[in-house]
Structure formats: C-alpha cells, structure tokens
Design a protein that fits this description.
alpha+beta; 18 strands; about 15% helix; nine-stranded antiparallel beta sheet; 7 helices
C-alpha cells in the first residue's frame, strides 16, 4: 500500500527561517580547524597549486563576531524591506520584526496582492562559540573578509564589511556586504551580489529601535527542536536516509533536525557557506503530481522535477520512496548543482502539501545572524 505524504505542508512558513537563520545560530556539526589551516587562511597562502585560502582582516572578524553575539543580548524592533532579483523577475516585501533575547524573533507581513499576511515566530536557540565555527568561522572558511568603510542605516552609524571569494582579482566584485550597527553590533543591512556585481538579495531596516522588542506568546510557532549530532546522522544513513556532509557550492552541513514521528517523520538538513543557504527536506512517501498546481515541470541534471522559481527557489521530486524538497536562498546555478547531487531514481506518485507563501520567500534575509 502506498502512503501519500504531505511533505512541505508539515513545515509551513517556518521553513526558510530555519534554513537560514537556524544554521547561522546552531552550527553543531562544524568542527574546529587546526592551527595550520588558520595560519594559511590568515595569510592567504596555501600549498603550491591549491585553492587560495581566504584572507580575513582581524578587525572584520571582530566586528562580525560581535554581530553574531548581539542577538543573544540585544532586543530590537523595526521595519525592514527585503528584495530579491532572479532570472524570473523581482520579489519585494516589507516586514515588521521584533526580537527578544532568549524568546525569539517574530516576523509579520500585512500581505500583498500576491502574498497573504503572515505572522511567524522563530524560537530562540543557543548561541554558538565564535572562537571556532559559528557564523564567523563559516564565513571565514569560504570568503575573504575586510572592513570597507562606514555608513548610516535607518539613521544609525554602521561599519561595512565586504565578503569576497578568495583569490579573486582586485577588480572583482564583492560577493556580499554587511552593514553592522556600531552601537549594538546588529546587522542592519545586507546585500548579496552575482559575479557581475548586480544585486541579487537585499535587506535593510527602514526604521529600528534597539532595546525594544516584543514577541507575542500566542504567535504561531513551529520549532524543529530535535537536533541531531553526527552519530544520529550516521544512524539515519544506515536506515536509507541521504545525509551528505557537503553539497556543491561548496556548502557545508551546519544543522540537522527531525520533525514529526512515525510515518510523518521528516528530516531537515541545512547547508551554508555563510552567505548562500540550502535546506533539504526528506520524507518517506511518493509525489502526487496533481498536488503541484502552480509549480512548473522541469528537467534538472537530466532528471524530472517540479520547480517554484520565485525566491526562495523550491525544487521537488520523488526518488526511491522518498520525497525530496530543496528550498534555497542561493544562486540558481548552485541550486541546480545541489539538485543534481541528490538521489534521482525515477518519478513516483504520492501527495505533496504546498509550502506556505509570503514570509517563506523573505524571512531568510531579515537577519542572517539570528
């Protein structure tokens, strides 16, 4: 008897927040790096013929470390715009953000003609060590980091940090920039660029009040509390789940969680390089093509899939009795490579619950440091 699975419906609008904010605040699967690797990255030198190591300016590292720690001690409330540009067009939305240390972050949207109003809360999680791993370690492992100037955002003085692929020419464009509040350390603005220097993601506070925040106790909450360590992941692999430690990008597995129970068990794997983020959801079952109204049939890497091309990009398919859902705030080419790297063993039947729209498109950008 075939079981029909409402995959993404069980995840709802919280999906991308956990995909992006979660990995940058809980990096339990990232191990420390040895002193030789750190020395090479600091100097930008490596063995002959090797890929260049990131060059991390110490002032930039310290400012980013402060930004990573700030949400644990600093409440804030503000209005923020989020925008994205893809080959399929542009997406923009304005959201209200409230953050209370130890309680979580609420995000609200009044809705538009194409997206319903949303109210969602991401519960607070533990603060990572910033000595090794954490958001700073993840960024420093993949990007050269430097302070490039000062500016103002929402009337507040900020320091601007640029991230760039290591070994890039002096004339190359930055990959991303972060605007960090000089008084609190909070990230007040963020932009991500393509190789031609065009903006692909942008978020910034229009107004912000630091020291104020209110997370409603009756706000909808869908936490994935069951985190998994490497031993738990190994056991999953033995029982037929696909849990790679890396994906093309290169993206590193930074967070692993389980939701539901029994036949409704869902595995949620989060990957990131500190800027781009990808969530992979796996659930036993089969895909019902009738439930994919609004998603386009496509072929990626020679395999049939269903694609929702807006931001974040969502790709769904079924393979070997498992429904795979990839949700990504990452370049389209990276998403294509990730999908191709996951299992594909032919199309199957089943059911698929639609992912919540609205904030699931934008919540990944409102605060990349949690």
């Amino acid at each position: 008897m075939r079981r029909h699975v409402p995959v993404a419906g069980a995840v709802g609008a919280v999906v991308v927040v956990l995909a992006v904010v979660g990995p940058l605040t809980v990096l339990a699967l990232l191990g420390p790096q040895d002193s030789q690797q750190k020395a090479s990255r600091a100097s930008g030198r490596g063995p002959a013929g090797s890929v260049p190591h990131p060059v991390v300016q110490e002032e930039a590292r310290q400012l980013l470390a402060r930004a990573a720690a700030a949400p644990a001690v600093t409440p804030y409330h503000g209005v923020q715009f989020v925008s994205a540009w893809t080959s399929g067009g542009a997406t923009s939305e304005v959201v209200d953000v409230d953050h209370v240390p130890g309680r979580g972050t609420s995000v609200r949207s009044d809705g538009t003609v194409v997206a319903p109003a949303r109210h969602m809360t991401l519960l607070a999680v533990g603060v990572p060590s910033i000595a090794d791993g954490g958001v700073v370690g993840l960024l420093a492992a993949h990007y050269s980091l430097r302070v490039v100037g000062q500016d103002t955002v929402a009337g507040r003085a900020v320091d601007v940090i640029a991230a760039r692929r290591p070994g890039a020419r002096a004339s190359a464009h930055d990959t991303a920039r972060f605007w960090l509040d000089r008084a609190s350390g909070l990230v007040l603005r963020r932009e991500v660029y393509d190789e031609g220097g065009r903006t692909t993601r942008a978020s910034a506070f229009v107004s912000v009040s630091v020291g104020q925040g209110d997370v409603s106790p009756d706000a909808p909450q869908r936490p994935w509390s069951a985190t998994m360590d490497t031993a738990a992941l190994a056991r999953l692999c033995v029982h037929g789940w696909h849990c790679p430690s890396t994906l093309p990008g290169p993206l590193t597995l930074v967070d692993a969680r389980r939701g539901g129970s029994g036949d409704e068990d869902i595995v949620h794997l989060s990957y990131s390089d500190g800027i781009a983020t990808v969530s992979v959801f796996e659930q036993r079952g089969r895909l019902d093509e009738k439930g994919m109204d609004g998603d386009q049939r496509a072929t990626e890497g020679g395999h049939p899939v269903f694609v929702h091309g807006q931001v974040p990009r969502r790709v769904v398919w079924s393979s070997g009795g498992v429904v795979y859902t990839v949700v990504a705030d990452a370049p389209e080419r990276t998403v294509d490579d990730v999908v191709a790297a996951l299992p594909h063993r032919g199309a199957e039947d089943g059911t698929f619950g639609r992912l919540g729209r609205g904030l699931d498109r934008v919540a990944s950008w409102f605060n990349p440091f949690g």
